[in-house]
């Protein structure tokens, strides 16, 4: 595995951003992307309080779910020459994030090292993992994630 060149935080729980801000202190040269996390003012404050330079922080609000956390940033990473990232998400969410990442990022030559944020929740059900694996394969084949259907038929 290549040495990670950036940090990617999947939005969905404020604890992830707080954890990532502390994590980013250990890697002062790495840029940090937060994909559809908390509101910009709060996210900026969390990282500022941790002493993370605002120049390192990239807040991206294109994603509407876990699959699009990956698909909306893959081109950005490729254009910046980023081939490996630390992937930060909650422990209960990691199984699904890893499957999606292997398909979406893997198809584009981007590796990731998972970093789990501890929680008291059980891992997500396999049905969500399989559903989003199928959506990820669809994106690789067609360039579409089915996100609009996903929003209509089921919630994260």
Which key phrases capture this entry?
single chain; 156 residues; alpha/beta; Rossmann fold; five-stranded parallel sheet; 48% helix
Short description:
By secondary structure, the chain is of the alpha/beta class.
The number of helical segments is 7
CATH topology: Rossmann fold
What name goes with the CATH superfamily?
HUPs
Helicity, as a percent range: 40-55%
The pLDDT mean sits at 94
Name the overall outline.
globular
Order of helices and strands: EHEHEHHEHEHH
The end-to-end distance, rounded to whole angstroms, is: 30 Å
Q: How large a portion of the residues is in β-strands, by DSSP E?
A: 15-25%
Strand sequence of the main sheet, in spatial order?
3-2-1-4-5
Helix/sheet category: alpha/beta
Structural topology:
Blueprint: E1 6-10, H1 14-25, E2 32-35, H2 40-49, E3 57-60, H3 66-71, H4 74-79, E4 84-90, H5 91-107, E5 111-117, H6 126-142, H7 147-153
Parallel strand pairs: 1-2, 1-4, 2-3, 4-5
Helix pairs in contact: 1-2, 5-6
Describe this protein's structure.
- The protein has one domain: Rossmann fold (3-Layer(aba) Sandwich).
- 48% of the residues lie in helices and 17% in strands.
- The chain contains 7 helices and 5 strands, in the order E-H-E-H-E-H-H-E-H-E-H-H.
- It has a 5-stranded parallel beta sheet, with helices on both faces.
- The N and C termini lie far apart (30 Å).
């Amino acid at each position: 595995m290549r040495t990670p060149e950036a940090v990617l935080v999947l939005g969905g729980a404020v604890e992830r951003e707080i954890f990532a801000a502390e994590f980013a202190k250990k890697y002062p040269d790495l840029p940090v992307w937060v994909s559809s996390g908390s509101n910009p003012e709060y996210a900026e404050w969390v990282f500022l309080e941790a002493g993370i330079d605002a120049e390192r922080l990239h807040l991206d609000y294109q994603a509407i779910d876990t699959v699009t956390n990956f698909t909306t940033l893959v081109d950005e990473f490729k254009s910046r020459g980023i081939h490996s990232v630390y992937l930060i998400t909650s422990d209960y969410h990691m199984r699904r994030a890893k499957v999606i990442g292997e398909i979406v990022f893997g198809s584009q030559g981007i590796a990731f090292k998972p970093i789990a944020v501890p929680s008291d929740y059980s891992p997500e059900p396999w049905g969500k993992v399989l559903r989003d694996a199928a959506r990820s394969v669809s994106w690789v084949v067609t360039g579409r994630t089915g996100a609009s259907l996903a929003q209509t038929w089921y919630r994260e």
